[in-house]
Amino acid sequence: MSKSCKPLYPGLFLLGAATAALVFAAPQTCAEALRHGLALCGGSLLVSLFPFLVVSALIMRSGAGEVLGVLLWPVVRCIGLRSRSAGSVLLIGLVGGFAPAAAETVDLLRTAGKTVVLATNPIFPAVATQNRIRWAGLQPESFRLYTTYENSHYCKPNLKYYEEILQNIGFQPEECLMIGNDVTEDMVTAKLGMRVFLLTDCLINQSGADLSPYPQGGFQELQAYLSELIA
Q1: How far apart are CA 49 and CA 225, in angstroms?
Q2: 218 with 197: CB under 8 angstroms?
Q3: Between vectors from CA 217 to CA 212 and to CA 221, what angle results, nearest 5°?
Q4: Distance of alpha carbon 102 from alpha carbon 67, whole angstroms
Q5: Dihedral sign (CA 180, 51, 87, 117)
Q6: What is the C-alpha to C-alpha distance for residues 59 and 72, in angstroms, rounded to an integer?
Q7: How far apart are CA 35 and CA 124, in angstroms?
Q8: 8-30 pLDDT per residue, tens
Q9: How many CA atoms, within 13 angstroms, populate the side-chain half-sphere of residue 133?
Q10: In a 3-state reduction of DSSP, which class is residue 137?
Q11: Cβ atoms 177, 194 nearer than 8 A
């Protein structure tokens, strides 16, 4: 057994004990998180993420992203991006489905001095979420907060999940805009008094809900909507 692993034992034991205690301290919350996580994993999550993880990791670790990304630089300039890393991000998008407009939208908000939060369902640890952010052409520092299972106690669509975010960033619901593509999990924030925008790219509407109450559209319509709010 490696001696370098021995200092980790007490920490791992404490982590395991704390996890076990949490099950008894908050059984309903743990059960809700478990059901939601299993539902996601049992659906399309693993199938859709696995190829993306493999291909994007291969491209980034082999250095092919930086080399082949140069070939896409003319395309990148045509769509209005100026970052030198945008070529490799676009390459990953072509093989993995990432929309560069997502990073452009975040940059738009940050340039306007807005606080940006990544309210992603906290089913991954911080290290995995940070890598997902980087694969999207952004940095974890681009966000005031990004939710992980270390810093969150609830999951979507539980309103307490969003209330916890508001408490952490010190904002009132009326001061916030929720942008999301899941009608059930994201648009629920309207019940708290948040403005919402339904992103119809990769729309998820499992309940078949009426979409008419929500401002909506693709990334182009979203950026136009944000420009009006910012102006």
Answers
A1: 30
A2: no
A3: 130
A4: 23
A5: positive
A6: 15
A7: 15
A8: 456 666 777 777 777 777 788 77
A9: 23
A10: coil
A11: yes
